[in-house]
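Internal ticket - ligand job 173, protoporphyrin IX containing FE:
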Amino acid sequence: MAEPFRYNRTMIALHWLTAALIATAWIGAQVIDFFPRDLRMPVRSTHILLGLILAATLLVRVAVRLTSPPVPPANAGLFERIAQLGHILLYILMAAVVLIGMGYAFVRGETLYGLVSLAAYAPADRSWRHLVGEWHELAANAILIVAGGHAAAALFHHYVLRDGLLRRMMPAA
Ligand code: HEM
Ligand code: HEM
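stdout (structure tokens):
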């Protein structure tokens, strides 16, 4: 019998690296204000650095995906369309959170550990800062919600339908 489909090792590594980067960047952003003032800059810098690594990971991931052989469907009919739309939405949201995050750093004026610094765009005008921050947070929260549904669907397949779906995204033993 033919071996069931499995994503290639690079796609698998990039998938789990992406999930880890998103989880740590999101948690990091939530806890910045719990740090004493003088420690907030390095924590915020780490958040930005994780976001920049996510940006690079995303570019490599899309390039590898587009140059790899096509992925055979894991579902039938409408469910496959929904799964594909969910995956595309996740790619779009990841690009959005990174791009809007960069915009947020630009309007706020940020530094990366004091090594590189950006002057704030229109520092007197707080409205831009507020708006872009809201959009950045919205995109970040939307990823968590869509990825939560995506993970629940994957676990349902694996443990309820018992079709071994998770193995498609796990390295061979
Ligand atoms: C922030 C977290 C996550 C993001 C952004 C994410 C994103 C994605 C994307 C974009 C794909 C499609 C890959 C492609 O064909 O190009 C995918 C596939 C997959 N993901 Fe995730 N994922 C996340 C977390 C998880 C978690 C927690 C699980 C498991 C519980 C999971 C299980 C899977 C599986 C099994 C596939 C393959 C689905 C298939 O073969 O149709 N993912 N993920
Ligand atoms: C290059 C990418 C990114 C940049 C430049 C960036 C930049 C920033 C900055 C400067 C802040 C303000 C921090 C503070 O309030 O002190 C922030 C907040 C935040 N970021 Fe990011 N970020 C990026 C990627 C991400 C990613 C990948 C996530 C998670 C999916 C994320 C989630 C958040 C959240 C939830 C907040 C809190 C929003 C708020 O309360 O205003 N960011 N980001």
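Auto-summary: DSSP finds four helices and two strands in the chain. The chain has one domain: 9-169.
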